[in-house]
Design goal:
Oligomer: single chain
Radius of gyration: 38 Å
Number of strands: 3
Number of helices: 9
Helix content: 40-55%
Order of helices and strands: HHHHHHEHHEHE
Strand content: 5-15%
């Protein structure tokens, strides 16, 4: 705003030469219309009232009116008719090369397993509690006892197949029934 006041104070001859200068006109335009800050990501961009009115009117149209509007816009804007796509697009009929690629890719191999204890032999309960205490880190005797008594329960999750097999072998020796998923 200060630059506008300074410009208005110029004599008429200087004012005319100033108005002819495009670089200064751009500075004045920037002073008059400051840059707008873009909205943050995830927030809808503000829409002009004119566009908002058009959108609200279009959303109130029924299907036949929308079809008629589409035809009129195609004519006025000289847009070609788009070919109708089959349901699912081009993916409905895969090319033979695509089928070969699918066959060539190996199937996903399961890499993480979960060891579950479903039941145990009551006669070997004490041995099982001791084994749980030694196999699972951070368990004391009381925690191991509560863990064994809360069957069915997950012993360990997201472990490798070798580790799951070793855990199953160790627990089945002391009377537990184990499933690996």
């Amino acid at each position: 705003m200060n630059s506008i006041r300074i410009i208005r104070r110029l004599p008429t001859r200087q004012w005319r030469s100033f108005s002819r200068c495009t670089a200064l006109n751009q500075e004045v335009a920037e002073a008059i219309n400051p840059l707008t800050i873009p909205p943050p990501e995830g927030v809808d961009k503000p829409v002009s009232p004119k566009i908002e009115k058009i959108v609200s009117e279009i959303t109130n149209l029924n299907l036949l009116e929308v079809s008629e509007l589409s035809q009129v816009l195609k004519k006025r804007l000289n847009l070609p008719d788009a070919p109708v796509m089959p349901m699912g697009g081009f993916a409905a009929m895969p090319a033979p090369a695509a089928q070969e690629e699918e066959e060539a890719t190996p199937k996903a191999v399961k890499t993480s397993f979960t060891v579950k204890m479903t039941k145990f032999d009551d006669k070997q309960k004490v041995a099982l509690i001791k084994e749980i205490k030694s196999l699972l880190e951070g368990f004391n005797l009381v925690q191991a006892k509560k863990f064994v008594e809360s069957v069915p329960t997950v012993v360990k999750a997201d472990i490798s197949k070798d580790e799951a097999e070793k855990l199953k072998e160790a627990l089945t020796k002391v009377g537990a029934v184990i499933e690996i998923d």
